[in-house]
Amino acid sequence: MGQRKASKDGDRKVGRRALLIGGTVAAAGSAVLARDELARLWWRTPGVEKPREEGAVDYTGARWVAASDANWRRADRPDDFGIDMVIIHVTQGSHDSAVKAFRDPGHKAATHYIVRQDGRVTQMIRELDVAYHAGNRDYNERSVGIEHEGFVDRPQDLTDEMYEASARLTARICARYDIPVDREHIIGHVEVPGTDHTDPGRHWDWDKYMRLVRRARTTPA
């Protein structure tokens, strides 16, 4: 969230790739292959979405609290938009105030996850979907956003429990989407082009965080 209210994703038009399957299948073997391909890829056709379970989380141990559907848009990532980035935010407030903001349709912004100072994780948007968190449509579509409870000018808010829990979360996201564990792909909100935000701020310890992510990335889940 940073020091100002997050900008919304200005264009909510869903940019799904249409899968066009046509032609005549002459051989029986080819027909079987075509049926298998259709069965596997049916959800890529326009207007069709992956099966969803209400309240399901993408990260084991996370608590689900749904964000307002005004603060994100439905997608089928990574098949319609590839995911190659994690964006780090600081809430500029408490965990509960962030949850309240993300459940407010007038806020027009939310991240996928919030990490509390005690290390507990709340998921508010599925990774399948595009959260309005970066203030940049392209970065929204290609990233997962993680908020951290606290204020950018209070280094004491950035607890060891928060760093460690967030690093484990980021490591699992990177493993799931084959995202390189480096500073080109794990960035702060302040580094998003066109943003007017400053988070995670000068007190965020990137060396420590990246070390923890790399360690978690090589540790069995």
UniProtKB/TrEMBL annotation:
GO MF annotations for this entry? N-acetylmuramoyl-L-alanine amidase activity
Pfam families of this UniProt entry? Amidase_2
Coiled-coil ranges from the UniProt annotation:
none
What is the superkingdom listed in this entry's lineage? Bacteria
Print the keywords alphabetically: Cell wall biogenesis/degradation, Hydrolase
Q: Which reaction does it catalyse?
A: Hydrolyzes the link between N-acetylmuramoyl residues and L-amino acid residues in certain cell-wall glycopeptides
> Recorded E.C. number(s)?
3.5.1.28
Question: Per its UniProt record, what SMART domains does this chain match?
Answer: Ami_2
**Residue limits of the N-acetylmuramoyl-L-alanine amidase domain?**
72-201
Which BP terms in the Gene Ontology apply to this protein?
cell wall organization; peptidoglycan catabolic process; peptidoglycan turnover
Protein name per UniProt? N-acetylmuramoyl-L-alanine amidase
